[in-house]
Amino acid sequence: MNRRKFLKTSGMSVVCLYTCTPKRDSAYLRPTNKRFAHLEINGNYRDIGYETGRVFKKNINGIIKRRAGWHKGLMETLRSKKALKYSDKLLALAKRHFPKIIQEMEGIADGAGIHFDSLWAMNIKSELGVIRSEPPGCSSIFVHNDKDMWLFHNEDGHTAYQNIMFTIKASPPSGISYIAMVYPGIITGNGPSVNSRGIVQTTNYIGSVKSEIGIPRYIIGRAILEAKDLEEAIQIATFEPRTYPYHHNIISLSEKKYASVETIPNISEIQYPGGLYCHTNHLLFDNTGQFQNEDQEYKNSSSISRYTVIHERLESLDKNEVQQDDIFSILSSHESKPYSPCRHPEEDVFGQTLGTAYIDVNSGEFRLYKGNPCESVAKERFVHLNF
Questions:
Q1: What confidence score (pLDDT) does residue 268 get?
Q2: pLDDT band at 51; cut points 50, 70, 90
Q3: What is the share, in percent, of the chain residues with pLDDT greater than 70?
Q4: Residues with Cβ within 8 Å of residue 65, at least 6 apart in sequence
Q5: For the sheet containing 166-171, what is the strand order?
Q6: Mean of pLDDT values over 229-246
């Protein structure tokens, strides 16, 4: 069944496109109170995708069921003539510039037993402009003083993802392995990650009321996972054309450098902050801040609320005396809830802090705390992500 026929006839149907069974070299660890379920996989891009989809089939199909109305809306939008034409252009560009990532996505869909278009729709959800019950949001803090260099990041998403997130360690043919926190149904690169060259990435969603023809943001985030150094990571983040805004926190552990990269379609701006710095989910820089299509409703509710709490707390600290616990305390704050740094679902707000990443740039330590930091940090509920 081809794409267009599938999109005309399918709703929530599950279709397996391929029957091949690729060579696998993988290891699986069950989730614990400290660790997300974890998969280690070697192979080509399709193999990595297939095994990810096969092992986490329940997680991927689970999010489709938990967010049935949302996924149905995605598919209905994608079936429209205008959206399908737009989607085909994005897919063609992605295949031209990042073909191996599309191979990986085809493998995920095959392994999970879903049609590629169901997976593709989830990975261009922002570009499709489907109305969301609540956009995602994340909060990042960077500390750099005379002795310390740290990055902290609260990874927030819809509460439906609670207890079904996972981590993956993949070793693709490029020779650059990576470890990442993964949303079921979304390619790696959106959640906190580190690769074997010491490139760390966390991302912040930036809302837009309009998207352009270009490379989808999740494709760019995934490509960065195989960057060999900071320069290449920034080159990928700023690759043109792009469809949608994005913010990347990128660190090179070997170079001891941090870059805050804001991108909008056709414009990007890179800064190298020091001291005490934070970023949530709106544009801060001069060039990118002129973007006319930023989602002001989201910016003025969730993002500004969290940014204000974090920024004011940081201003009360001495950058040379700040301790890790000071930053964890800020990210664990419920001030201005439900749009607080530590997110919990409340009434019709479905945001949830799913995990917290901590990176010590000087030592190379990368921790991933499971769940809300108000609970996980105090209970030391974390694992080390390293090679």
A1: 98
A2: very high
A3: 92
A4: none
A5: 25-29, 37-42, 166-171, 178-182, 193-195, 199-204, 246-252, 257-264, 267-271
A6: 98
CB 182 within 8 A of CB 108: no
What is the CATH number that goes with domain 139-384? 3.60.60.10
Six-digit token string for 340: 């607080």
Q: Both tokens of residue 356?
A: 């917290």
| Interior/surface letters 99-134, b for 16+ CB within 10 angstroms, e for the rest | ebbbbbbbbbbbbbebbbbbbbbbbbbbbbbbebeb
Distance CA 313, CA 335 (A): 11
Please state, in angstroms and rounded to a whole number, the distance separating the CA atoms of residues 152 and 132. Answer: 27
CB-based burial label for 269 (10 Å; 0-12, 13-18, 19+):
middle
pTM of the model: 0.93
Pull the structure tokens for residue 116.
Answer: 């590629």
> What are the sequence ranges of the domains in the chain?
37-128, 139-384
Q: Please report the pLDDT score of residue 239 as a whole number.
A: 98
Nearest to 354 by CA among 121, 36, 141, 1: 36
In the predicted model, is pLDDT for residue 20 greater than 70? no
Q: CA 153 to CA 357: how far, in whole Å? A: 5
**Three-class SS of the chain:** CCHHHHHHHCCCCCCCCCCCCCCCEEEEECCCCCCCEEEEEECCHHHHHHHHHHHCHHHHHHHHHHCHHHHHHHHHHHHCHHHHHHHHHHHHHHHHHCHHHHHHHHHHHHHHCCCHHHHHHHHCHHHHCCCCCCCCCCEEEEEECCCCEEEEEEEEEEHHHCCCCEEEEEECCCCCCEEEEECCCCCCCCCCEEECCCEEEEEECCCECCCCCCECHHHHHHHHCCCCCHHHHHHHHCCCCECCCEEEEEEECCCCEEEEEEEECCEEEEECCCEEEEECCCCCCCCHHHCCCECHHHHHHHHHHHHHHHHHHHHCCCCCCCCHHHHHHHHCCCCCCCCCCCCCCECCECEEEEEEEEEECCCCEEEEEECCHHHHCCCCCEEECCC
